[in-house]
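To whoever is covering the structure queue this week,

Two jobs came back overnight. Logging them here so there's a record in the thread.

Job A:
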Amino acid sequence: FVWTFDIWPDAVYAYGFPRIAPLTLFLNHLIRKVYRNSDHILVSSRKFIESIRVYVADRPVTYAPNWLVEETHKVSGVRLDTSRFNFTFAGNISKAQNLENVLLGWAKTRFVIPVALNIIGEGSSLKSLRELVERRSIPNVYFWGRYPSDQVEDILRQSDVLVLPLMADPGIQKTEPFKLQTYLHVGKPIFGIAYGSIQDIVEMNGLGICAAPNHPDEIAAKFQEMVPFAEKCHKEVAERSRMLLLSRFDKEQIISRILSIMSK
């Protein structure tokens, strides 16, 4: 059995692996060998299946996504300003999260109400993002730093909209990021700055609005559309999120599916 959580070679190229021979030939040979020596392949995203079929057409593939990791939650030291409409991103701050385009889009917004963009976390891109905000004088952006995972839910629950961005690379866009389950558990409207898997899940389940990840003008427009959407649909989104966790991302169902395959 192979359980795929990042789709190769797409993800490898996205993080800088050079697309030159003989490296690409070796990588393709390695991937093909792994899949051809597997009896069954599990995938954490449905969009991985099309990429795997390029390497092997006759192996069974089963969707087995991430599930929510339950933990005891604590009150955070972060208290968001309730007089503002709060957009919040929480997670690793790296190139893959595409936060530079998020900030460029945010800089173009023209809200008629007080707003805030809260960024929770640390990572390799944090310094450059702080410099971008300072250099362009982008207003109402708050970097809160890193907080323990058991405090993040409290921060998300104080928010009005949860921001879920990914870089535009095709391999990255096929993933279903782990933070999605946390966002669903909180049950707040989601602004997906992505296409691919995130767009499918968010839009097909009525959880929010999505924008193209490489178009700051569109990101700005959709930021503004999220305000009336969240005010009108927050109760429906909470219920749809709960049902999606129970039907698609339930730990017991996923493990049972895997064990059933193994037993055969």
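Job B:
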Amino acid sequence: MSLQIPNDKIWISELNKDETVRGGFDRDRTVRFYDTTLRDGEQAIGVVFNPDEKFEIARTLSELGVGRIESGFPKVSAEDTEAVKRILEADLTSEIWGFARCVISDIDAHIELGTKQVLVEISTSDLKMQAYGFDRKKVMERLTNAVKHARDNSLRVNFFAVDATRSDTGFLKDVYSTAIETGAEEISVVDTIGACAPEAVEALIHDIASHVGPGIPIHWHGHNDFGLATASAIAAVRGGATWIQGTVNGMGERAGNADICEVALALQCLYDMPVELDLTKARDASRVVKQAGGYQVDGWKPVVGENLYIRESGAVASQFHIPQAIEPYSADIVAAERGIVLGKKSGLASIQLKAEELNLSVSEERYPTILAAIKLLATSEERLVSDEEFRQIVARSQ
């Protein structure tokens, strides 16, 4: 189900509406999201989700509107097995997919738990094959056996070509053809180490889509090593990808994965593409995952950053009454609260807004004295001034 953002909540440049920007997208289909926070996201250094946390994250992802949740890799540990089992039994709205290497025992672990659909992976680049100690013949043999085994046990299969963007294109096409002929119903084009520019992503997806035909859904899985994961995901959609794989907060190994909420926001607001994600739930999902993972994100991070709608600068505060002047999209889209904080960079308008927020009666002639006290405190202690300190400064100014 597509959740359309009202146009009056989006305040982007008119230049974005040019056909050179918005052309090439198929707006008759809705972009959907396959979340891999519980598997690829957990590969972030030092992050360990216990079964209770994985269950809570899965529940939150379902509320966010994620079409598919990758439940995990039960072969890793007994705890992962328990988490997958609980998620499968939860009867969530999202489809639950399993992750497996092209290894029969990996697939059997999912069969035993009752998984109905599985993503199976194997490396397809010569570099990765060399690192693992096998060749192209072995890749074909392993993927054929794995896909056949999954299909023989009534599992739906998405074939996931690891390091696809650095693979020989001819061999990559042969791999996808073999996977589909063996029974895979969907394929994933994977930029395992974020080594592909957005323009190259679009071209590759278009080429693969033409090769496999319109009946095979294509997933894009990209990483953020050059800070281009969101741009690459958008390019993949323009190229013909049906699904975007990624994580909450963009977490993951090295520089992380594509952030599904960032991709959803950009596709809707900048490219007018329908997406299946409820961005009013994005900040809740971010909070749950951060808490479980024991980390924080930057206050200025798109969609979920705590400071996106909080203003300290006096020059910006003077425009606060017209959100369109200082923000590209409404806080309502991501269910955020707008507000003013006081510090070194505050101005006279900041004093007025904060006084109104706290229901304090402050005459305009006192603003300069109050502002000077705020700047002195903020500068000397190199921090913001709290609301309580503001009340005290106001009281002393009388």
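Note for Job B: The chain has a mean pLDDT of 96.

Please reply-all if you pick these up so we don't duplicate work.
Q.
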